[in-house]
Amino acid sequence: MAVKVRIPTPLRKLTNGKDEVSADGKDVKEVIDDMERQYPGLKERICEGDGKLRRFVNIYVNDEDIRFKNNTDTQLKADDEVSIIPAIAGGTA
Amino acid sequence: MNFTEEQIERYSRHIILPEVGGKGQAKLLNSKVFVLGAGGLGSPILLYLAAAGVGTIGIADGDCVDLSNLQRQIIHDTSRVGTHKALSAKKSIEAINPDINVVTYEERLNADNIRGIIKDYDILLDGSDNFPTRYLMNDAAFFEKKTLISGSMFRFDGQVTIFKPHEGQPCYRCLYPEPPPKGLVPSCQEAGVLGALAGVVGVIQAVETVKEILGIGNGLAGHLLIFDALGMNFRKVKVRRDPECALCSDKATIKELITYEEACEIQAAKCGHSF
Question: What residue numbers bound the domain in which A7 lies?
């Protein structure tokens, strides 16, 4: 099943500039793996070596943070929108 | 509170709003707001808070105005290059509204000075440009039980939220437990940012500040507002209080301020001139 994944600016270098990509999977873990197949290098930007999400990157399914659902085991259904939202720090002080 | 004739005229467009009125304007004039950073976000924040009549405004910035700042830092101007940003901002605010008491801190905040500086303010705003300062500000705001209105940006993306752990709402560490390690995020110099994006993000912080002071509307506490300038999309996602939060949960392990290493060398402009 394909879902839409929103890509933040810092990762668009890896998705050929695309701000939204389509990826297959029944849960978030499978979607991440499918994105890695399509856009090699993306997984290591958002996950630690053990597959857990990095602590300064969040993934949302619709408007819910997956850390408060089932993490990367969070199930997906058609029309769900997955967003990758990293911490950003700029204020250009 | 008794307004002068001039104040009634100056703030008339606020006072005639039923949600503000004379009472609300008096709240603004009696409020004390602290703004960290007189840069890209700080510029629009400070200009609007000053115009709105926020009575006491604290400004902390250790840097001086550089020519490359003027692409987005609209509180400064060409004649101020080389002067302390906090002092330059104060000068602009005083020209807009002589009602405002401006307190400047021309220094970088650190674990030793931050709590003493912020404790006298009602509301704190973060317009800093690096992760170590953001975590320092978040942790200090938690320990001092102050509301923190946070804005940040990167290239074409902006984020705004409000942290109020003292009122049962999340803190920055509930949203992002730890800063990225050095080297994993692009350095400040290579990042770049769309100048007008700072206006969008900073003005949203200013709107949220005024609403907080007045106690009106729905604030962004518990939500993260994400702005994508290229797609011209605003989206709101939920921010939940993390029951495992190292700072604000029952399982907290952080009991004092932490100093993180700067992820990038910040090139401070030389302060060649002063007022």
Answer: 2-86
Asked if A92 lies within 8 A of B226 by C-beta distance, the reply is no
Number of alpha helices (DSSP H) and beta strands (DSSP E) in chain A? 2, 5
B133 phi and psi, to 5 degrees? Answer: -70, -40
What average pLDDT values come out for chain B (275 residues) when binned by 10 residues?
Answer: 95 97 98 97 98 98 96 97 98 97 96 97 95 96 98 93 98 95 60 91 98 98 95 95 97 94 57 57
3-state secondary structure of B65: coil
Q: CATH number for the domain including A42?
A: 3.10.20.30
By C-alpha distance, the chain B residue nearest A11 is: B185
Give Cα separations from A62 to A26, B23, B146, B173, B237 (angstroms): 15, 40, 30, 21, 8
Mutation choice for A interface testing from B224, B237, B238, B266 by most A CBs within 10 A: B237
Q: Is the ipTM of this complex over 0.95?
A: no
Residue B243 lies in a domain: no
Query: Token pair for residue A93?
Result: 């002080």
- Residue B250 domain flag: no
In chain A, residues with a C-beta closer than 8 Å to the C-beta of B72 are 92
Rounded Cα distance, B203 and B180, in Å: 27
Within 8 A of B138 by CB-CB distance, chain A residues are none
* Residues paired with residue B59 on neighbouring β-strands, in sequence order: B35, B104
Using an 8 Å CB-CB cutoff, list chain A residues near B152: 87-91
Please give the tally of structural domains in chain B. 1
How far is residue A36 CA from its own chain's centroid? 10
| B14: closest CA of chain A, how far (Å) | 29
Domains in chain A, number: 1
Partner residue facing A91 (CB), from B40, B231, B237: B40
Residue A93 domain-assigned (yes or no) = no
